[in-house]
Design a protein that fits this description.
The protein is of the alpha/beta class. Helix content is about 30%, strand content about 15%. Helix 5 links the parallel strand 5 and strand 6. Helix 5 packs across helix 6, helix 7 packs across helix 9 and helix 8 packs across helix 9. The chain is globular, with a radius of gyration of 21 Å. This is DUF1343 domain-containing protein.
Length: about 400
């Protein structure tokens, strides 16, 4: 199959539309061609005038490990063009940076989750392009989590850098498709084009979104593999808790744990409360010791989520419900556990991080309400999921 960057480079007519124009590139380390040439190098080699580069969270180089670590602007050492950070002094492109190009190519590998900030960066670039009369092309890439939709829809007033608009946590779209939805939803007047993939089959085994013939490259430092991408719509919520999500280990965001929980007991309690929410994956209790971040240097016990191998069922796996169930099991076993982390997540000072992540308080309230049943959360999320499936339908390209 071919990604958007590969189709662009192979099509003289498409390249011809860009020749003689100033071209910007929004990219990161996973922005590579089929032969693993970085898109910047490939575009320059194709004879385009790449006049500027933009980098999202974690930087063009992908060198910044943790969340909320800002990247500076700099000059590209090979080609000499300016590199503008969209996760530094600014989150939105400045007027100065927007004057450096005529058309911007967005070539970002996404994870298919609302909170993954490349979605928001896409929206901010579209809004800036509309304001400055610039053209936007998305060089489309797969959604490695596939088409499934899951989670509560972000509520009005809860917009943030991890919540660009009213969509559920797991949106099931590519960035090219999402850009079209943004333009329609927000009424943007911008010249927009998607260079679509060729041969992407999001429902086909064994990748179910990620083509197994393509090499996986981390789009951010802790996005190490497809298992992480599948689990992320649930495990990302751990960032709003005192539990470790595995930062400081080699398998971040595929697990959860802490020094003061019993992994086997948590798994058993999860299966007692809502066994159907544990389907589609294999849960394994294990030990780990983070080398940095939460519980650094402490021996932790926890749960590893294997959304891979013979035990993986793409249709049955629901990572957002699974992680919510993990929280509920811990609350059941340890009623007074200080589960929710209170800090300015993505610079939101007035709201709990878990609520910012979920785009409202609904999930946290369900976890903390001992009288609430799994069906209560299921019903609320189910209504949102059905509405999103209908809303996104006319924007799907594949």
């Amino acid at each position: 199959m071919e990604f958007g960057i590969d189709r662009l480079l192979a099509d003289p007519a498409l390249l011809g539309h860009l020749k003689g124009r100033r071209v910007a590139l929004l990219a990161h380390p996973a922005s590579v061609t089929a032969d693993l040439t970085h898109s910047l190098d490939a575009l320059v080699a194709a004879g385009l005038n790449v006049s500027a580069v933009f980098g999202p969270q974690h930087g063009v180089r992908g060198d910044l490990q943790d969340n909320m670590m800002e990247s500076p602007d700099y000059t590209d050492p090979t080609y000499g063009m300016p590199v503008f950070s969209l996760y530094g002094e600014v989150r939105r492109p400045t007027g100065q940076s927007m004057h450096t190009f005529d058309v911007v190519l967005i070539d970002l590998q996404d994870l298919g989750c609302r909170i993954y900030t490349y979605v928001t960066t896409l929206l901010y670039m579209l809004e800036a392009a509309a304001a400055h009369g610039k053209e936007v092309w998305v060089l489309d890439r797969p959604n490695p989590a596939g088409r499934p939709v899951e989670g509560l829809t972000l509520l009005p007033g809860w917009e943030s850098f991890v919540g660009a608009g009213p969509m559920p946590m797991r949106h099931g779209m590519t960035l090219g498709e999402m850009g079209a939805w943004f333009i329609d939803h927000f009424g943007l007047d911008v010249e927009y084009r998607v260079i679509a993939m060729q041969g992407w089959e999001p429902d086909a085994a064994p990748g179910f979104g990620w083509p197994p013939e393509r090499v996986w490259i981390n789009p951010s430092p802790n996005a190490a593999n497809v298992n992480m991408a599948r689990a992320y719509a649930g495990t990302v919520m751990l960032e709003g808790t005192t539990l470790s999500e595995g930062r400081g280990t080699t398998r971040a965001l595929e697990l959860f744990g802490a020094p003061d929980i019993d992994g086997k007991a948590v798994i058993a309690e999860m299966r007692r409360i809502a066994p159907e929410w544990t389907a589609g994956c294999t849960l394994r209790d294990f030990w780990f010791q983070p080398t940095f971040h939460k519980h650094v240097g402490a021996l932790c016990n926890g749960v590893f989520i294997h959304a891979e191998g013979a035990g993986y069922d793409h249709d049955a796996f629901h990572p957002w419900r699974l992680q919510a169930l993990g929280f509920r099991a811990i609350r059941s076993l340890y009623p007074d556990y200080a589960l929710w982390r209170d800090f300015p997540y993505e610079y939101e000072f007035e709201k709990l991080a878990i609520d910012v992540i979920n785009g409202g308080p609904g999930l946290r309230e369900w976890v903390d309400d001992s009288a609430a049943a799994p069906g209560d959360l299921d019903a609320a999320a189910g209504a949102d999921e059905t509405a999103w499936v209908e809303a996104r339908a006319r924007f799907l390209l594949y």
